[in-house]
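Quarterly update from the structural biology core.
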Amino acid sequence: DVAVTARSVDSLDETAAAIRAGGGVAHAIALDVTDVGQCRAAVAEAARLLGGLDILVNNAGVEEVRPSLDVDEALWDRIVDTNLKGAFFCAQAAARQMR
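Predicted structure, tokenized:
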């Protein structure tokens, strides 16, 4: 059994459907990892649906390739919030569930 998360409900539903079509059990949970509250809530919901957590796969990430001299603060914040902050707080929430 797995819980899958994504910002895009369409891709989330598609992924969950593919898992189910292969005979698996999938729970779809909408999540924007840039929102710490959503990270905590999604991990708690996954643990509830799965009867606990055994593993977390952090794979959310964004990138916009451009010369570093052209990166503005808004882009930097989006990258760091998704790739670093989101990964950290999802891992923290998962670790709390795994104690």
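The beta strands are 2-6, 26-30.
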